Amino acid sequence: MTAIRVLIADDQMMVRQGFTVLLNAEPGIEVVGQAVDGADAVEKVAELDPDVVLMDIRMPRLGGIEATRAVTEGEGATVRVLVLTTFDLDEYVYEALRAGASGFLLKDASAEELAHAVRVVAKGEALLAPNITKRLIAEFARVSAAPRAQLKARTGELTERETEVLALIAQGLSNTEIAACLVVAEQTVKSHVGRILSKLGLRDRTQAAVHAYETGLVRPTGY
């Protein structure tokens, strides 16, 4: 099995070195480089072609949000970005998701949590700090612009079952949980998810969840 290639972008040397040691000790994960700021991260992504970038938000020259947008919006871009932050409700996390990040993790995460996050994001799945997943996306929806007609029109291209699956993705359910909920095979759910992402022009499950909230398909409750 090919190792997951990781680039660590953070302006603090101790953070970069610490994460490098932790991840290189994990089977199936290889840190292929380090970047000292956002601009360096953009250059290193082009040079090293990593699968996942651990991206700090606040960095000199070019911040993590701008760097995330730069590496995820390019034609044929496949790299996944996992945003690192100190605060679970950092206002910039919302903008990072909008810019194309696949999720975020707190910097005080354990080695096990860090490795798990890298593996999940590398597979194209959503990864947000588990204890605040729904709260974060719901708050993102609150501070984002009102649902746009264009987004709603794209959602209208989905079949009834695909729309149902999209709503369940936005609620944080895994493919296994969605399959159990709809009483269908997990492979069927995977096929639905693939078609949803393709029809809506979205990168992964995180972007699908944000889309569902932005268009009003799923509304935040209890926050």
From TrEMBL:
According to the entry, every stretch annotated as the HTH luxR-type domain falls at 151-216
Q: Where is the Response regulatory domain positioned along the sequence? A: 5-122
Is Cytoplasm tagged as a keyword? no
| Coiled-coil segments | none
Q: Name one Pfam family in it.
A: GerE
For this UniProt record, the keywords arranged alphabetically read as follows: DNA-binding, Phosphoprotein, Transcription, Transcription regulation
What GO molecular function terms would the record report? Answer: DNA binding
Under CDD domains, the record lists: LuxR_C_like, REC_NarL-like
What InterPro entries does its record include?
Answer: CheY-like_superfamily, NreC/VraR/RcsB-like_REC, Sig_transdc_resp-reg_C-effctor, Sig_transdc_resp-reg_receiver, Tscrpt_reg_LuxR_C, WalR-like
What's the protein name?
DNA-binding response regulator
Q: What is the lineage of its organism?
A: Bacteria, Bacillati, Actinomycetota, Actinomycetes, Kitasatosporales
